[in-house]
């Protein structure tokens, strides 16, 4: 399960996808399948969450990994390269960005 903490020694990735209402559910289904059957089984995977806006024009994916190298290795795998091509077909664009937690508020 993802943990948001400035002191956590992990890598956080937030990926945003720009979609249309007509492709939103298809992309969510592809992402769900990718996490269920591949990504969650990769070394260093901690947890992730998928979020969709009410207009179904944006999907945000929040994932955490033990190390950035684990995330990069997953991205470079043959299976994920094929999956990313399919994801790219279903959205206008997507961009995974690595982040460090700056602050948390409760």
Tags for this model:
single chain, alpha+beta, ABM_dom, Antibiotic biosynthesis monooxygenase, 4-stranded antiparallel β-sheet, 29% strand, 106 residues, oxidoreductase, monooxygenase activity, Dimeric_a/b-barrel, Alpha-Beta Plaits
Short description:
This protein has 106 residues and is an alpha+beta fold. Helix content is 36%, strand content 29%. This is Antibiotic biosynthesis monooxygenase.
- CATH architecture classification name: 2-Layer Sandwich
Please describe the biggest sheet, giving its number of strands, its sense, and whether it closes into a barrel. Answer: 4 strands, antiparallel
Query: What number of structural domains do the residues give?
Result: 1
SSE order, as H and E? Answer: EHEEHHE
- Total strands: 4
End-to-end separation: 18 Å
Give the neighbour order of strands across the main sheet. Answer: 2-3-1-4
Query: What's the CATH topology name?
Result: Alpha-Beta Plaits
Radius of gyration over alpha carbons?
14 Å
* Percentage of residues in strands: 25-35%
Describe the structure.
- This protein has a four-stranded antiparallel β-sheet with strand order 2-3-1-4.
- The protein is built from three helices and four strands, in the order βαββααβ.
- It has one domain: Alpha-Beta Plaits (2-Layer Sandwich).
- A hairpin with a 5-residue loop joins β2 (45-52) and β3 (58-65).
- It is α+β, with helices and mostly antiparallel strands.
- α1 (21-37) packs antiparallel against α3.
- Helices cover 36% and strands 29% of the residues.
- It is globular and about 40 Å long.
């Amino acid at each position: 399960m993802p943990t948001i903490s400035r002191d956590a020694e992990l890598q956080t990735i937030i990926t945003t996808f720009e979609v249309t209402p007509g492709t939103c559910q298809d992309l969510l289904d592809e992402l769900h399948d990718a996490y269920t059957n591949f990504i969650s089984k990769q070394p260093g995977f901690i947890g992730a969450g998928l979020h969709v806006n009410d207009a179904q024009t944006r999907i945000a994916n929040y994932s955490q990994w033990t190390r950035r190298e684990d995330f990069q290795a997953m991205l470079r795998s043959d299976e994920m390269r094929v999956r990313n091509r399919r994801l790219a077909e279903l959205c206008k664009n997507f961009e995974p960005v690595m982040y460090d937690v700056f602050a948390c508020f409760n």
